[in-house]
Structure prediction request, 487 residues.
Amino acid sequence: MQFDNRSRRSKMLRDINATRANNQSFPSSGVGNLCMYDFAPIEEITLREFEEIAEQRLKALRKIEELKLRHEKGMFDEYKASMAKELNPIFKPCTLHQINNEELRKRIRRDDVIGHFALRLAFCRSPEDTKWFVTHEIELFRHRYMNETRAAILNFVTENKFDGGMINSDEREEHLKEFADSFGCSLEKVRLADIWAMDACDALELARKRKVFLSEGKAYLEYDSLITIIVQRLRANMYATMARANQYRGVIEEQDRLFPRLDRLTKGGCGGKDFNAAEGQSISRHQIDSASAQFFPLCMSGIQSHLRKNHHLKHGARRQYGLFLKAIGLSLEEALAFFREEFTHKMDSDKFEKQYAYNIRHMYGKEGKRQEYSAFSCASIILNNPPGPEDCHGCPYKHSSEERLRAALKAAKIKSEHIDEMVALSKINQFDKACTLHWEVSRGQEKGPLSTLITHPNQYYELAKEAAGGGPKVEVKTEVKMEISTQ
Ligand code: SF4
Prediction:
């Protein structure tokens, strides 16, 4: 084990030295607003600044998640407009092309790279966190790409050594028919289009979608398809370097100073955070009704009421609710007893054991593939497995009729003016804002607004417990010198 750490540490030092030797601090700092993040920054920075820059970027990624939730497929124009209106003002790199002051531009580029690598380090520890980070970084990149001029994009492609370029008119005429067939357009359109020849290895995703013409190791594609190639490389690069950064974490001697800060960044309810019962956190089946009334979001308190009333839950609700209860600390034994007590109002225990107990043990990783399952995030509840007419799972702000949503909020003793506000928010797909408002008004306005949006039912629960006095203490910031490299 020690040998393993030593070899990893020396490999890490070799990588850092190679980066230094290349003098690659911010290589993609040309005229454009885009960056491939091929090299980690190597300058010295205080922990406080590191944390502030990372928080700023995380805020932007959370905003993107919020906007994606608000705009379903097919609402691309609205999504694009909201990104410009709500993301640009809180994240300076998105407006870099509007800034003329060269010093300021340099500073923004530097923070862009530092923020990106700080979050790579924070989000590299679990596949779920990594996936969440990569997905939203790619979305951020696409947004910035769309605001770039064609000249800046062409410069970016050259600067980042993508092997390819625009073909000339003779070459175009030679393959005119093949291009029209591959791109699914007319010969006339091909004659007017900019066509690029790239290394076929860079265009695998487009080849899979049959959107390119392949010949002699080259992939021919339309200018509009360039983004797919760039994003494919960026995504692969992020996954590979984050896997490596995760290996290095064990040998970085920053357990006391840096790691608690990185841990804090991944808390606070991003879609990729796994909620698991913290050590010592437990709840018994007898406490569930009281916890539901005080600390559960509307989706979970609704399922609890349905269970008490009907003594049964269908598959979707059993899974959504069962994993939520597991993540707030309900043990397997208590979960089995809890569901058995309710279900056996309507069936004998033999039937419960045969049809339902396996399912509960499976959620706790004791059957089947013996896999640990995480509680569902709001994004997953909203986007996957929508409830049918007989189901009680899902997100009430997204899936319930206005009448049922009003009734549920009234039963939760929410004032009518707040109900109106939450219904209005849910009508414009701002489910997270509606849920956050529910959290706020349920705790009394004197507690002040919540500083984050609710994006996970277990985040709602943990913040509600914390507000009631049962949460973790806030750590005081200190300032020390550090050097970062996550490559
Ligand atoms: S927004 Fe999330 S936590 Fe709130 S009710 Fe919907 S799914 Fe539950």
Observations:
- The longest helix spans residues 47-70.
- The chain has a mean pLDDT of 83.
- Residues 297-299, 378, 381, 395-397, 431-432, 435, 454, 457, 460 surround iron/sulfur cluster (CB under 6 Å).
- The beta strands are 44-46, 164-166, 195-199, 213-215, 218-222, 481-483.
